[in-house]
Amino acid sequence: MKKRSVFLVALLVLAIVGGTVFAGGQQDAGADSPKVVGFSQCDSQQAWRWAETESVQGEAAVRGYELKYNDAQAVQANQIAAVRSFIAQGVDGIILAPQVMTGFGPVLQEAKDAGIPVVLVDRLVAEDEDMYYTFIGSDFVWEGERMAEIVVEETGGKARIAELQGTPGADPTIDRKKGFENIINDYPDMNIVLSQTGDFNRTKGKEVMEAFLKAEGENIDVVYCHNDDMAIGAIQAIKEYGKDPGKDILVYSIDGIKDAFQAMVDGDLNAVVECTPLLGPQAYDALEAAWAGEVLPKWVMSEDGIFLQKDAASIIDSRKY
Ligand code: AHR
């Protein structure tokens, strides 16, 4: 056989092998092979995120999908690498809980070029909305506004507020701050006197609250926490400082995890605005709509509730996470 013919045969073999690999992936899966979904979770150091991960994993099992899971451990570069790996493996769909709003453009473009729908859960990105299929999550401005209204009500519109912010650059951090300020800006005696990130993390929330107390312990009336985990850390710091959380310093937070309900029952936490992490079923509904060629709104908004300390004891047993 001439050199040129050998080369052509080799090319043909490569094409067949390549085609077989491709057929086993996302484009041409047999009717019986389960759909494969990649889930990129930004972090796993918070109770809220465990609940979200369980929801996404549990629903994959219910629907018979194969789930590839990656925990980015709060490092955006890990998350981008995970999404890239899902694309390379030819998954049928990607569920992405982004760490921050910016920086996902190139990898979202790669998913789009590969024809893989991306459903964003719980946090939005700043990219153009053509870059993802839909976003499923809460209205964080609404959460911040409702929280501020409760604080105004419970303090008579007069409070020196310490704020524990979430991860810098994350959608809920930006919008919970904005929503809270939308309301308190109408009250001249409601002032944020200290504000710093606790990274949505219980340990860091405690550390930042300790620093706040060391600096201004006698001048804080209220702690507004962008999530429950930081509130639990702050409560611990307040106790160790020798004050009574929930009374000497009022504590408010967002999420609605069971630990927060227990803290309300114990009188340590004053109120919670909910942010549901149980997004698995809606995420797969969205992917199924994408696979069926349907068009969904770019934001499928979650419904959240408001919980006051006085109602916590009667509700705690019904909390799922
Ligand atoms: O994006 C949702 C927020 O992020 C939750 O409030 C929080 O606990 C999480 O890390």
UniProtKB/TrEMBL annotation:
Family annotation (InterPro entries): Peripla_BP_I, SBP_2_dom
Segments forming a coiled coil: none
Signal peptide: 1-23
Domain Periplasmic binding protein: 38-294
GO molecular function: carbohydrate binding
Keyword terms of this UniProt record: Signal
Localization in the cell: Cell envelope
GO annotations of cellular component type: cell envelope
Pfam families associated with the record: Peripla_BP_4 (PF13407)
Family: Belongs to the bacterial solute-binding protein 2 family.
Name of this protein: ABC transporter substrate-binding protein
Organism: Candidatus Thalassospirochaeta sargassi
